[in-house]
Every structure is written in C-alpha cells, then in structure tokens.
Amino acid sequence: MLSTVFLFILGLVIICVGGDKFVDNAVIVARKFGMSEIMIGATIVSIGTTLPEVLVSTTAAFGGSAAICAGNAYGSIICNTALIAGISQFFRPANGIDKKSFNWNVSLFFLFSIFLFIVQWATGSIPRYAGILLLLGFLVYSAGYVRLLSGNSKEDAPQEENTSAATALVLMIVFAAALFVGARLLVDNGILLAQAAGVPERVIAVTFIALGTSLPELVTTITSIIKGYASLGLGNILGANLLNLLLVMGIPATISGFAVERQTTFLDVPISMAVMLVLTVPLFIKKRGYRLQGLALLVIYAAYCLYSFL
Q: CA-based angle 161:167:171, to the nearest 5?
C-alpha cells in the first residue's frame, strides 16, 4: 500500500513538473516561429497531449476492442470542453484570439462532427471508408496549418530566449512523455487506492479513468492559466478535440470499422457539439471569453456526469 501511495504522489509530481516545462517550451517554439499562442496550442501542444489517447485507440483496434474508441473519444471531447475549457474560461477568460487559426480549427470540428453523426445514424457504426476520410481530414488539417504558418511574419516575434527552436521541440517531446508517464502513475495507482477504500467500480470509471485520459490537457491548461497564456490552453483544447475525431477514431476505424452504441450517437455526439458551441460562439463573435461562459460549461459537465452516473 505504501508503494501505491508513493507512486500516486510521484505521478502527481511528474505531471506538475512536466506540464510546467511543456508549456514553457511550447511558448518558446511559438515565439521562434512567429506563431500565435492559440496556433501552437492547436498543433504541437494538442498532438502531444492527445498522443496517449491515440496510442490507446490504436492498441484497442489491434486487440479487437475498437468499439470502445467512439465513446472514449466523445467523452474526452466533452471533458476537454465542458470541464477543462470551462475551468479556463471561468478563472481566466481568453482575451483576443488568432481568428484564422480559430476559424480553421472550429469549422473542421463541426464539419467532421456532422459527418460522423450522419454516418453513425445511418449505419450504426464507423465503417472503414469513414476512417480513411478522417485520416485524410487530418492531412488537410495539417496542411492548412502549414499554410497559415507560412503566412506569418517572424519579424516582430520576440527572440529573447536563449533556447533554440530545435532544443525546445525536443524538450517538448520529453515533457509530453513525462505527462503521459505521470498520468498513468496517477490514474493506475489512484484506481488501486480507490478499490482499497471500497469505492465502487462505476464511480472509479466515471472519475479516475474518464479524467485520466484528459489529464495532460488539464495540466497543460491549468499551467497555461497560471503562467498567463490562456490562449495556448484554449488552442490545446480545440486542437485536441479535433484530433479526437480525426485520429482517435480515424485510426481504429481504418484498421477495422466498428459499431457505435446508440447512446453515443444520440447523446454524446449532440452534447459534444453543444458544449463546443457554448465555448466557441462568444469567441467567434466577440473574440474573447467570459466567466459566465465557463460557469455554463461546468454546470453542463456536472449535469452530464450526474446523468451518466444515474
């Protein structure tokens, strides 16, 4: 039991330190390449924080358990948007966004969300052809950001950091790996402690496991808020949500199409789009977020968890 407690605390320390350094190096990369905070958050940072979910979904597909990927992906989107972005907007609302990056990311999210809803409604599954289209969508998404980046001027970007862009990128990979390791230590040993305390498995599933898959995004977002880079955290959430559609579901669907539960199609998909509307509409219209918006997202997440639990 003492070793479990020690590993749980070690995991917490690793994700705190890893999240802090991950954000620092992400900001250095953004400045070196003349990228906005929201752009770096929606690309490199979101890929780093979503990588654990991509690995899990790919492993599940090869293991014949691809059907769990859709529920996990949509659950992660809801957690990212309603809980993590809700916390971000409540404590430090985003003030000013890179509109080109924002519009590109959000428009693709809703395009593929509607596409997947229609496919799931019509077939009750995500067939292989849909998975291929999702992966092609990832290529389009990446190409769009390459184009946006090539149009950015680096003349006005601050260059006071001594760390080179290449070094910062390598350090980002290292600390992204640290986030993954720390999250696994925290979640796995947290489950063991909860089981030892007699906590029901259902409660463990909707707390430790559900939050555990979004822990890198949560740590990155909170660290961004503390350091005053709220837009980086917002970009991380937007990018991670889209990658959950394109990669977390696209890869297992391409490997082997899989069935989707009716509740996922008619509850999780509409809620994931609804919370994204609550998050993005004020940002699109006013180019800033509001505390009331964050509160609304947190209330929606609490209601969703309560409904799922009951």
A: 105
CA distance 183 to 180: 5
User: How large is the angle between the packed helices 99-123 and 230-243, nearest 10 degrees?
Assistant: 30
Distance spanning both ends of the chain, measured CA to CA: 31
Does residue 174 form part of some domain? no
Q: How confident is the model at residue 157 (pLDDT cuts 50, 70, 90)?
A: very low
With beta carbons less than 8 A apart as the criterion, state whether 99 and 212 touch: no
Residue from 73, 232, 239, 247 nearest 144 by CA: 239
- Any bridge partners for residue 125, and if so which? 259
Residue 160 placed within a domain: no
Q: Quick check: 206 pLDDT over 50?
A: no
Nearest to 215 by CA among 251, 239, 244, 181: 181
Q: How far apart are CA 69 and CA 244, in angstroms?
A: 9
The C-alpha torsion from 173 through 178 and 183 to 184, rounded to 10°, is 100
Q: Name the token pair of 223.
A: 């660290």
Q: What is the CATH number of the domain that holds 103?
A: 1.20.1420.30
Domain count, the chain: 1
Region 106-121 average pLDDT? 96
Q: Which residues contact 77 (CB under 8 A, 6 or more apart)?
A: 241, 244, 245, 272, 275, 276
Q: Which runs of consecutive H residues, i.e. helices, occur in the chain? A: 2-32, 37-40, 46-62, 68-78, 86-91, 99-123, 128-150, 165-196, 201-204, 210-212, 215-227, 230-243, 250-255, 262-263, 269-286, 291-309
Residue 6 within a domain? no
* CA-closest candidate to residue 107, choices 282, 276, 272: 276
Could you tell me the pTM of the whole model?
0.78
Mean confidence (pLDDT) of the chain: 81
Residue with tokens 């009951």: 310
| Residue numbers of the domain that contains 121 | 37-149+184-309
Report yes or no on 2 lying in a domain.
Answer: no
